[in-house]
Each structure stands twice: as structure tokens, then as C-alpha cells.
Amino acid sequence: MCLFSYDDDDPDPDERARAVLLYVPVRPEAAGPALRMFRTPLGERTAVGFTGLDLLTAALGAGQSAIRLAEPALRALTEPLGVDRLVVDPVLSAPAVTAVPVRAAQEPARAR
Which of 23, 65, 82, 92 has most Cβ atoms within 10 angstroms of its Cβ? Predict the structure, then answer.
């Protein structure tokens, strides 16, 4: 007699679910592609993956290189780096930080 009640739609725990492949942003390096790490709005390091190439392009631009990795593989690569957060299909991103020249309005007013 089974002590637990299972719904008919529940998968058998012994059956492995098919891993979803993600498009993972990388940067080219001499030794091969390196995963790009990002930060959450609160500053926590995170890995990022996209379920479609169009979503990656919309968030990071057409020039962004990517590789295909399954979620468990991505987590296994980032765990030794101390990164345990994975964000899938982020839609909000900030532009790259650039140096802003000092404007005349910020300089003290000259006496006439």
C-alpha cells in the first residue's frame, strides 16, 4: 500500500526531465569563449540564459556572442565561481557605463 497520493500528471521521480537548452552570453577569449556574468539590481552576481536567440538579441544587442548550454551545465560552471543565481530571459538591462565629460553647467559661474 502506498502512503502517498500522486496526481496522474506528476512525473515519475525516477524519470529525468528533458533539460532545456539556453542561449548563454559569452565573450571571446584566446582560450575559448568565457561566460559573461551579470549583476542583479542589488549587486548580486548572476548567470543569465535566454530561451530564444531573439530574446538574447533584444536584451544584449545583435553583436552578442552566445553558446547553447543546458541549465544544469550552466549551474555547474558557475557554482565554483560562487554564483548560484540564474536569471532566465531578463528583459531589463542598463546601458554600459561610460565616462561623462564635465559640463560647463557644473563649473562655478564666472563673475562678469
Answer: 23
CA distance 41 to 43: 5
Output the average pLDDT for the chain. Answer: 81
Grid cell of 97 as nine digits: 557605463
The Cα–Cα gap between 110 and 112 comes to 6
Question: 109: buried, middle or exposed (CB in 10 Å: 19+, 13-18, 0-12)?
Answer: exposed
Enclosing H/E stretch for 73 = helix 71-78
- Helix, coil or strand: residue 104: helix
CA atoms within 13 A on the CB side of 92: 3
Q: Are 66 and 108 in contact, with CB atoms under 8 Å apart?
A: no
